[in-house]
Design a protein that fits this description.
The structure holds 2 protein chains of 2 kinds.
Chain A: E1 4-5, E2 10-14, E3 19-25, E4 32-38, E5 45-51, E6 56-59, E7 62-67, E8 72-77, E9 86-93, E10 102-103, E11 107-112
Parallel strand pairs in A: 2-11
Antiparallel strand pairs in A: 1-3, 3-8, 4-5, 4-9, 6-7, 7-8, 9-10, 9-11
Chain B: E1 5-7, E2 10-13, E3 19-24, E4 31-37, E5 44-50, E6 53-56, E7 65-68, E8 75-79, E9 88-95, E10 106-107, E11 111-115
Parallel strand pairs in B: 2-11
Antiparallel strand pairs in B: 1-3, 3-8, 4-5, 4-9, 5-6, 7-8, 9-10, 9-11
The chains are: A mainly beta, B mainly beta.
Amino acid sequence: DQQVKQNSPSLSVQEGRISILNCDYTNSMFDYFLWYKKYPAEGPTFLISISSIKDKNEDGRFTVFLNKSAKHLSLHIVPSQPGDSAVYFCAASEEGGGFKTIFGAGTRLFVKA
Amino acid sequence: DTGVSQDPRHKITKRGQNVTFRCDPISEHNRLYWYRQTLGQGPEFLTYFQNEAQLEKSRLLSDRFSAERPKGSFSTLEIQRTEQGDSAMYLCASSHRQGASAGELFFGEGSRLTVL
């Protein structure tokens, strides 16, 4: 039972354009959502998060949008840079985060120069 | 302290052998997690400690898997009688209990297990 789904295994974007990564979830008890970025041979690193009481959170070039009624969130990267090429994991948890964070399968982003 | 460290980074073993992985979390973090990641998948939750207490272990994959955090600092994950299906990356993460980054997990670089 995949509670967090990333249906696009990969995405290719031109440098300078917007990258949009999507994520759907099924558990209505999730109240905290996160995006992690992973380079090869490294562990995932935290990128940005959003609480269920918000619908948008922005940090520099990265913005996460949450649509609770659709159980959908997205990560926007603008402008995209070649260094953004990595695997991006969507994650969700109950009780404000941390405990038993559930991850999606990831989307591999390629940003072409 | 620069982050979560895991040892060994790579382990190759024969089927039926026991293996143990160690994780040293960020020193001020009281929560510690173990995850498993297989190719093409996201990290899969295994177990979780708050200080030395193991508060969730139902997701440990079988009774061959066990984890400890004896003094609330470092943790070990042991797999007994390894099987080829145990081949994966084993990730450790730690986090604060409270504060602005309470929900954020800080991951180590992982321990890759190959069972022949």
